[in-house]
Amino acid sequence: MNTANTLVLDFEKTIVEIEAKIESLKLLAQEEDVDISKEVARLQEKLNKQLVISYSNLTPWQKAQVARHPDRPHCLDYVNSLIEDFVPLAGDRTFADDPTMIGGIGRFKGISVVVMGQEKGHDLETRMKYNFGMAKPEGYRKAQRLMRLADKFNLPVITLVDTDGAYPGVEAEARGQAEAIASSIECCLQLKTPIVSTIIGMGGSGGAIAIAAADRILMLENSIYSIISPEACSSILWRSTDKVKEAAEALRFTAQDLKHFGVIDEVIKEPLGGAHRDSKKAIEEVGNAILKHLKELLPLNGEDLRRRRTEKFLAMGRNLPD
Asked: Taking residues 49-54, what's their average pLDDT?
């Protein structure tokens, strides 16, 4: 991993120092033509141990930081890697196209699918283009259009969730943001074709659940899924942003907590040190998990799928474990 131009999280400082030493030794070996393989191997072993120590004991707040890491693979990274012959579809047929909501048809491991998700972008230019992953009403209406298309042609739906929340701007509210989100949730629940949703980073509020009311909900182990951010929760409850760590603990938004509560169906293991350290491996693991669940859902009758999906969400919260 090249640490020169990447975000360094506070709990990763020791890791980054070891990585920097390894890079320095490799550079020295190139310049001086010396054998430093034993020293590099020793440092690599030390690095792997430190990664295990750091990432096996992450607090909820640290998981939130990892979920937001700009180097994590985003929606388009998954689409480009997992979907063959992807044909993007644009527009909500009402107002405009929202580039934040990526959507289209393609083949996933030989299965024709409709795929959609929020794209955040990797640099300032693309983040502005994709509105930092915050979709507007036309984005959610585009999602509904694609889901109805999937239903019409009996295509399974794959959604990739990565958003801090729906765009809260005045113009979005004026164009019916709340209604668009509610209708998108309703559309998910009415589908007679399988829908598998994966939280790949941030699963923020109604902007996330709008495309995640699915038969199967999966989460990468360092992603989060919550009705509110720790910062906003801290501001509301404590009138200060100083209590973000306490808010993160109270929100119980980690993949592990949500699996315990029955809100999600599977926690997908990330590569050692998080998805931002090995995007290719993370994408591969997500693809394998989606395929497993699709194979279980595809033989089911459409009416049974819709009924079971609705019952799944109605049952949430009725008998929560401690």
From this structure: 84
CA dist 40 and 62 (Å) reads 29
Tell me: pLDDT of 317 over 80. no
Identify the CATH number of the domain defined by range 64-315: 3.90.226.10
Q: How many residues does the chain have?
A: 322
The structure tokens listed for 222 are: 């360092």
Question: What one-letter code names the amino acid at 157?
Answer: V
Cα separation, 226 vs 307, in Å, equals: 25
Looking at this protein, which amino acid is placed at residue 200?
Answer: I
Task: Spell out the SS3 assignment of 60-88.
Answer: HHHHHHHHCCCCCCCHHHHHHHHEEEEEE
Contact assessment for residue 80 and residue 122, using Cβ atoms and an 8 Å cutoff: no
| Domain spans in the chain, listed from the N-terminal domain onward | 10-57, 64-315
106-134 tens-digit pLDDT: 999 999 999 999 999 999 999 999 999 99
pLDDT of residue 60: 93
Distance CA 71, CA 68 (A): 9
8-state DSSP, 257: H
pLDDT band for 3, please (50, 70, 90 cuts): very low
> Strands 157-163, 216-220: parallel, antiparallel or unpaired by DSSP?
unpaired
